[in-house]
Each structure stands twice: as structure tokens, then as C-alpha cells.
Design brief:
239 residues, alpha/beta, seven-stranded mixed beta sheet, 7 strands
Amino acid sequence: MKTADHRTSPRVLVAIPAYREERSIGAVVAAIQHKFSYDVLVVNDGSPDGTSAAARHAGAIVLDLPCNLGIGGAVQTAFLYAMNGGYDALVRIDGDGQHEIDDIPSVLKPILDEHADAVIGSRFLGEKEYRISIPRIFGIHFFRLLVGLFTGYRVTDPTSGFFAINRRLIEFYSYHYPSDYPEVDAYILMHRLGARTVEVPVRMHARAEGKSSITTFDALYYMVKVTLSFLINAIRRFG
């Protein structure tokens, strides 16, 4: 049974970037559509498997990218779709089953109540502690310090890919969005825009299927690359 949203007027798009997730994407799309009345968009990021067919069969709107652009390009494609489609809010989740879809309303609420421009779902808030590896703990602490130092935002989960944004940020990100591992860079962009951001607790699960977008990269290389990109975005001009 679908959960009734007491605010039916805003148009909400649930965006799912997906790469090689044919075994999980259908269940994620079906679960969202079973519970909510939001439009569901899957951006198939050049997957060579059946990701696109599985998402389409489950009832999602599917955009097939002709090649693999990476997570930033796939998510920016969703922003462009939301902007051109006139959506008021966008929720981004993963297609591998890691994000708890029952938490979508709590991530959306500050947006629909017009209390925030961006809401980040944090796996480190709330009662349940999310277990991660030591290298990831080190990286997350480093990025917390980086984001706090340059933006003043006090964040607990700077690499969370579970978030919601309003129309203002949809339009901005449609033209300006990092191509690689954009979650940390997004904070400096929000700061440059003067965006209001908050975190809310969400649950995250172990990956059911699919391949992580960061496992093939060395953690130190990732930190250096993201840090340089973050600093460049702190001083660059946006047209």
C-alpha cells in the first residue's frame, strides 16, 4: 500500500544512478513504487548488462547513457531531467539496495517544508551505528574537517549518496556538478550558493548486488583528488 504524502502538490523525482545493477535495481524500483507516488527515474550509466531492462520492467522512467560517464555524470543527467521536467524536489538513492527507502519521507520533509535547500541522509546519526572499514573512517573524518573548515557546515556523513534537494539546487546542479565522487565537492558548491543544508538520520544496509563506484580506487588517491577538486571549486567562478 502506498504511503500517502500529505503534501501532494510538489512534484518529486526519485533519481537512481545505476551501473551493472540488473540483479537489484528492479526490486528497488518496485519497492519505491509500492510505497510512494513519486516518479522514479533510473539513469543507466552505460551498463552492459540488463540494468536498463530490469528498471524499465519494474516501471521506472529509464534514461540510457551511451557510455559510462561515472557517478557525477549520471547524477547530473538526473538533475537535467528534473529541471526540464519541472520537478520541485529530487531524492537521490542508490540502486543496490543499500539505502532504506522507508527513510525517503524523512529526507524529503525539510525540503517540502521549505526549511532546507539540501538534506543529507547520515548513516552516523540515530540509534543504529553503521559499521565501515578503518580506511573509510579515516577518510570520512578527513572530509568532515575539510568541509567544516571551508564551509562551516557541521556534517557527520560527507560521503553520503542519500540526499534530497529543492528546485533551486536542481537548477544549479544541472549546470555545475562534479564529475567524480561528487558528494564532498557538493558541499563547497552549496556553500558558494549560500544553500541551507541539514542532515537527518537514515539507515543503510550492506550492498545486496552490484559494484561499488569506489572500490577500484586507492583510498589515498581518492582523498587527494577530491581535496584538490574541492579547493578548486572553492575559488573558481561560476557563470
